[in-house]
Amino acid sequence: MNTPTPAQFEFSFLEEGFSARDIVEQKINESSMTDDRDAFYVCDLGDVLKKHLRWARALPRITPFYAVKCNDSRAVVMILASLGAGFDCASKTEIQLVQSLGVDPNRIIYANPCKQVSQIKYASAHGVQMMTFDSEVELMKVARCHDNAKLVLRIATDDSKAVCRLSVKFGAPLKACRGLLERAKELGLDVIGVSFHVGSGCTDPETYSQAISDARCVFDMGEELGYNMNLLDIGGGFPGSDDVKLKFEEITPVINSALDKYFPVDCGVRVIAEPGRYYVASAYTLVVNIIAKKVIMSEQSASDEEDDGTNDRTLMYYVNDGVYGSFNCILYDHAHCLPTLHKKPKPDEVFYPCSIWGPTCDGLDRIVEQCSLPDLQVGDWLVFENMGAYTVAASSTFNGFQRPDIHYVISRPAWQHVQQICAQGLPAPAEESHLAGVAACCGRESSLEMPTKPCHTHVA
Ligand SMILES: *Cc1c(COP(=O)(O)O)cnc(C)c1O
């Protein structure tokens, strides 16, 4: 195992009886006393723990390998490393990040089917063996540049019902798989399994069962060719909040029964997944401030006698984060973000049709095309929940607008629970491989010691 370097990030403990939402209020109050009023995040690391426990309950056979690209914050990666998760890394930098936290290379899958040669060499030199491929050219690169790769064949899925489609870019069609496996054999490479990704924002759980059944076919081909096929990787795409059409617990029974049918427990195949958004979306709340406002009067309403005053105007709010920053998820991840109000509206509050815009000078920088909000003022706050996935990870500082600060919080019981899992693993039903993960994680125990300072704490 690599020598761990200290995990460095700051977080605060939630005092008893306080929630992350209370911290949002507290930060708003602090900030409202100054002129800054910069946008900021509150991240509840306890929410990541909750997701992990929920995962273990719903998908007890499947070890999560967190997809780092979704949110590469050290705090999130460290919590997940402590919980015994594995990691899906797509680049040298992501591998470096995960390994800098002391994660053993056998808990990493290099899940990018199209890799740069120098990065394959990097993986080889750092003990990362599991990696995906979906083409013959990739096989030749790996044969040349890696000493001991354990290859996973990424197959295409029917992602026509997903919001973010991936199988145009990645995944071998079923009919190409036998040829690829034969080629791998000729090159003397080891193929250990199959992976897929149904696409993100999947709206039909049958996509998973179809893909699992396709994977079974490819397993059979591999076994015919003499490979010891022992890893099934069912990818990501699990929803990160319950604010979606198809909820997590509506998908998981479909997956479990497909696994029981095509990969029953006694077949000895290890099953992993690569959840990204699932783990982080709901942990992050983004708070933005209204920096400018326009009132657009409509012309017809003057003649409308019955008008209650709500139909005569449209409001445009300009806030201090936008699509070049945190809201890049609107462009890249097809996200729909709607604010909640910071102050509870009065019972007779009048709501107006509104649009919400980011701070840059680009006309594209629009967060919400249409929603309904009260008459807010410059300096007021808007709160966006579920902002942890594909937000901070891909944001830029275009036009000079800086990324919001992130305040990490966790309750003491949640922190203790994380440490307990790190030391002892999750209680049954445990999977065989789990013990190895715990051992690897607890080599770093000293970096996870209970901090002594009560509030603003450095984990070192
Ligand atoms: C992006 C990605 C994931 C994570 O997808 P989510 O929708 O965030 O779960 C998993 N695996 C691969 C290969 C990916 O590219």
Largest sheet: 10 strands, mixed
Could you tell me the mean pLDDT?
Answer: 89
User: What small ligands are held by the chains?
Assistant: pyridoxal-5'-phosphate
Radius of gyration: 24 Å
Protein model, in words:
This protein is α/β, with parallel strands linked by helices and about 450 residues long. The protein folds into 2 domains: about 35-40 and about 280-300 and about 310-405, Lyase, Ornithine Decarboxylase, Chain A, domain 1 (Beta Barrel), CATH 2.40.37; about 45-280, Alpha-Beta Barrel (TIM Barrel). It has 13 helices and 18 strands. The strands form 2 sheets. Strands 1, 2, 11, 12, 13, 14, 15, 16, 17 and 18 form a 10-stranded mixed β-sheet that branches. An 8-stranded parallel beta barrel has the order 3-4-5-6-7-8-9-10, surrounded by 5 helices. Helix 2 packs across helix 3, helix 8 runs parallel beside helix 9 and helix 12 packs across helix 13. The longest helix has 19 residues, at about 205-225. The radius of gyration is 24 Å and the shape is elongated. The model is unreliable at about 1-5 and about 430-460 (pLDDT under 50). Bound molecules: pyridoxal-5'-phosphate. Pyridoxal-5'-phosphate (PLP) binds near residues 69, 200, 237, 275 and 276. The site of pyridoxal-5'-phosphate (PLP) has 16 residues, from helix 10.
